[in-house]
Amino acid sequence: MRCVFVQFRCTPGKTYEVADAIYDREVVSELYSTSGEYDLIAKVYVPMDQDVGRFLSDALFDIPGIVRTLTTMTFKAF
């Protein structure tokens, strides 16, 4: 499994609805609200045989209320 972090910017007033929809998809291992430019951050494990972009697009990015995302790939845990 490949670990990636995805940050979500939500439509104002829709963060909790987006968070609920993300959890309903049962794709993320952890989900947090955050301060700053993005409203949520999720830790997602993508199967090694899957294309990261397609996996995330198919699994999460069509949720209503998501305005923008930022995906950070990881390489090694310390």
UniProtKB/TrEMBL annotation:
Source organism, top-level taxon: Bacteria
Pfam family of the protein (one): AsnC_trans_reg
Domain Transcription regulator AsnC/Lrp ligand binding positions: 6-76
Protein name, per record: AsnC family transcriptional regulator
Organism: Cereibacter changlensis JA139
